[in-house]
Amino acid sequence: MHSHEAHIQNFFTFGQQILAFPFFIALIFYIVAVIVSNQHKKQWSHYRTSCWIVGCVSALVTLIGPLASLIHVNFVAHMIGHLLLGMLAPLLMVLAAPMTLLLRTLPVNTARTLSRIIRSPYFRFVRHPIIASTLNVGGLWLLYTTPLFNMMHEHLLLYIFIHLHIFLAGYVFTIAFIYIDPTPHPHSYVFRSIILLVALAAHSILAKYIYAYPPQHVIATQAELGAKIMYYGGDAIEMIIVYILFYHWFKSARNFKAAISSHSNYSNEPRF
Amino acid sequence: MYEEKNHKHENRFHYKQRNMWTGILFGLGVVAFIDEVIFHQLLHWHHFYDKSTANIGLVSDGLFHAFSFFATIGSAFLLADLHRRHGFWLKRWLGGIFLGAGVFQLYDGIIQHKFMKLHQIRYHVDILPYDLVWNILAAILIVIGIILLFQTTQKAR
């Protein structure tokens, strides 16, 4: 029995290393891209570089190290991990504008191909606010209200898939609502506000649901504390998203007159 | 036109609706926030989750919770924008605040406390005086809000 648990433990340590690898690569690539592009373009903002570093680190601490091993056995740690990997890391990495950096670092032709890929119908579909919210919050509902949460801790592939999904869905969700990188098919502020509101509500409702009905095999006291962390911690990060959304509106609303006179300049930013 | 100071008086008519909605949003957000901080966190009169049977309670509470901070942040930016356009109208904005605050408090007092029985204001005491104070206060807020909004609807005073 004991050796079986040890075996499972090793199994997941392996899974975590696989998951951590892309974040290491992303961290190194970003810094290399900053150094390379700084040589022939103007200085890349330190604020963005630090966002990327902190974002990658907050994803990494959930995947390797002491917190990562605690996550398997403790639901409270699991929720802290959810906030870091699914919400904070994506937000910080979006704020770091990786696409903008990539586009200015790559040779012109490659950059054009890349921007064609971003404009493709697939990305347009996935980053639609409703689809992105469903993938993100809907995925969480599926995870915590079905046996999936238990199955995840028994099957390595499922474990890797769900963790990847949590990060990617968090990232797509963030870029669906706040436009830092170039955004080919923008949605209006009103539309984004309404969908964001519903998504945020669904997140807090899920937190309360977990509080009242813990996932299988999770001790009630841990579920309650975990739910509170999800609820209030989620608020803190969601407030930043709401703040940025309104801040962008505020900035674009100032340019109202300018936008009418030079209609092409601000076509990327729809009005409230 | 709306960015010149001497047009201030006309601007506020121009942004009449926005003054009202900014106030309503702010009122809703602030009262929901006060409710959560004072009654849930500080006094511990009622809690995060009191009743484990009414699922609809989870939904309504979650929606209002998200709305409260969304409204507070959003209305602050809307307010800043009104100031920038010199279209701010204090009286109408206050009217909006009273209306928004009152409507939320009445909703909380009637629908959440009584219909859904999500939680009560306080436990192990005679609840009637609390309910009366809560809902009458809400009604007074609404009446003040409506009066202020009516007074600012007429164009010429």
UniProtKB/TrEMBL annotation, chain A:
Chief location of this protein within or outside the cell: membrane
Q: How does it sit in the membrane?
A: Multi-pass membrane protein
Coiled-coil stretches, from where to where? none
Q: Which UniProt keywords apply?
A: Cell membrane, Membrane, Transmembrane, Transmembrane helix
Q: Where in the cell is it found?
A: Cell membrane
Looking at the UniProt entry, the stretches that span the membrane are 18-37, 49-71, 83-104, 125-144, 156-180, 189-211, 231-250
Q: Which GO terms describe its cellular component?
A: plasma membrane
| Source organism superkingdom | Bacteria
- InterPro entries xrefs: Caa3_assmbl_CtaG-rel
Q: What is this protein called?
A: Cytochrome c oxidase assembly protein
From TrEMBL, chain B:
Q: Which UniProt keywords apply?
A: Membrane, Transmembrane, Transmembrane helix
Superkingdom of source: Bacteria
Q: Tell me which InterPro entries the record gives.
A: DUF2243_membrane
The membrane spanning regions, by residue number, are: 21-43, 63-81, 93-112, 132-150
| Record carries keyword Nucleotidyltransferase | no
| UniProt entry tagged with the keyword Oxidoreductase | no
Name-wise, this protein is: DUF2243 domain-containing protein
The opening ranks of the lineage are: Bacteria, Bacillati, Bacillota, Bacilli, Bacillales
